[in-house]
């Protein structure tokens, strides 16, 4: 099967490309690096010719509210019509758990992306994942002022990229759901405690302060704002195992 992975050089993209290639599929790892750009439309027609499945794993270079919204809207507006012209039969996108019930600029952009996918008429499956364990440092950085990281004690259930990619690959080979599936890590714990464990484990001297009023990327959050409310498929890699693997790979 010919499968185009948009963002095929990224964190999840590169792992997904490797899994699908191992399975014997013809896979194009599409990204600006390889001459395929969903913002300008460059290289899209050639990459999509003959493709049965497109997996969109692109991410915005900027997380600023306006820039990220523009990225996902412009990207889908060039990608989806190109897929329709090429006769693509399944569009798979990676989104985030709780984007439609938790407010922040990045989540609003992902909601806009999902709406364009649903309206496109192309058979689709949206995989909504919780935060990646690989994103813990970015979260700490975004919540830090000097050496203090203020975080709310809400529930948090991060998932490893090595759990996300096989599920994305499996989803791409399955029949389109025309709906959403949710995935999360195997462990659920207070947000502030997970980040504190992470910083301690990597020898980062910053101190995590439990602050019920602290926001997540500028948005208000409550106990269950970031975790799945219904049924979710769980990954197998917990925090300790993920840390062991990432330290061994470093
Ligand atoms: N971070 C999280 O915790 C989390 C949780 C759930 C879902 N997600 C979603 O997961 C997806 C993948 O995230 P990631 O962390 O794997 O991303 P990433 O590592 O930042 O990789 C982004 C990819 O997008 C490509 N890209 C950037 N601009 C592009 C353009 N104009 N046209 C085509 N490709 C472009 C990049 O290509 P180059 O290498 O050529 O620049 C790269 O391959 C995102 O949609 C994100 O919203 C993230």
What would you say about this model in short?
The chain is α/β, with parallel strands linked by helices and 250 residues long. It is built from 8 helices and 12 strands.
What does this structure look like?
The chain has a seven-stranded parallel sheet, with helices on both faces. Strands 6-7-11 form a three-stranded mixed sheet. It is 38% helix and 20% strand. The mean pLDDT is 97. Helix 1 (11-22) packs across helix 6 and helix 3 packs parallel to helix 4 (105-119). It is globular, with a radius of gyration of 18 Å. It starts with a strand and ends with a helix. The chain is α/β, with parallel strands linked by helices and 250 residues long. The chain binds NADP nicotinamide-adenine-dinucleotide phosphate. Residues 6-7, 9-13, 31-33, 36-39, 57-59, 61, 94, 96, 110, 129, 131-132, 135 line the site of NADP nicotinamide-adenine-dinucleotide phosphate.
For the secondary structure, the number of strands is: 12
Q: Figure out the total of helices.
A: 8
Bound molecules: NADP nicotinamide-adenine-dinucleotide phosphate
Major beta-sheet overview: 7 strands, parallel
**What sort of overall outline do the alpha carbons produce when their principal axes are compared?**
globular
- Separation of termini? 34 Å
Unreliable runs: none
Strand content is: 15-25%
Give the structural class: alpha/beta
Helix content: 25-40%
Rounded to the nearest angstrom, the radius of gyration is: 18 Å
Order of helices and strands: EHEHEHEHEHEEEHEEHEEH
């Amino acid at each position: 099967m010919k499968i185009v992975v948009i963002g095929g050089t990224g964190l999840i993209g590169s792992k997904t490309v490797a899994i699908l290639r191992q399975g014997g599929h013809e896979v194009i790892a599409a990204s600006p690096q390889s001459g395929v750009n969903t913002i300008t439309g460059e290289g899209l027609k050639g990459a999509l010719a003959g493709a049965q499945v497109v997996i969109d794993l692109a991410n915005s270079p900027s997380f600023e509210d306006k820039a990220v919204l523009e990225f996902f809207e412009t990207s889908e507006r060039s990608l989806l019509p190109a897929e329709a012209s090429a006769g693509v039969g399944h569009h798979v996108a990676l989104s985030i758990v709780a984007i439609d019930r938790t407010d922040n600029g990045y989540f609003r952009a992902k909601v806009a992306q999902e709406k364009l996918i649903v309206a496109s008429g192309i058979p689709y499956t949206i995989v909504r994942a919780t935060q990646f364990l690989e994103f813990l440092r970015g979260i700490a950085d975004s919540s830090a002022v000097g050496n203090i990281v203020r975080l709310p004690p809400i529930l948090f259930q991060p998932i490893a990229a090595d759990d996300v990619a096989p599920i994305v690959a499996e989803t791409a080979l399955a029949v389109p759901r025309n709906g959403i599936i949710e995935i999360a890590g195997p462990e659920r714990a207070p947000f502030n405690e997970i980040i504190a464990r992470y910083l301690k484990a990597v020898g980062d001297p910053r101190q995590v302060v439990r602050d019920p009023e602290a926001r997540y990327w500028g948005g208000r959050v409550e106990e269950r704002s970031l975790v799945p409310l219904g049924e979710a498929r769980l990954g197998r890699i917990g925090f300790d195992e993920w840390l062991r693997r990432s330290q061994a790979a470093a």
